[in-house]
Amino acid sequence: MSKRTEQQLTADMLEKYYEYNKKKKEIEAEMNHLKEVFHQYFDHQLGSDDKGEVLLGGFKLQRQVRKTEKYREDTTIKRLEELQMEDLIQVVKKPDEAKIKSAIQLGLLKEEDLEGCLTTSTSLAISVKPVTPR
User: How many Å separate Cα 111 from the centre of its chain?
Assistant: First the structure.
């Protein structure tokens, strides 16, 4: 056994862990509240799902927008079968996104051929960083 695992547990250690965990939950709740306020600000100023940036008191508040695109499984499989492109479907009857993208890049398949098959979702992320003077 390493010395790390041989260390004795103490009541003090358990108490510290408990207190830190309680503080962590309080901090996370406050941070979630602040994020909500930041999102509401950007929604009001710019619109929902729009990225933005504010400089205030030596800090930069940014909202980033991340988009994720995914093919709807049932619709895409049906369409690929209609187009006789079964080799773009994985064995477990799932669209093979990497192969589909390659087929589009090679011109074997057009994006329009899969119209209505792609779903896009967005997620918003908040970051706050100190602004370093130049």
Answer: 24
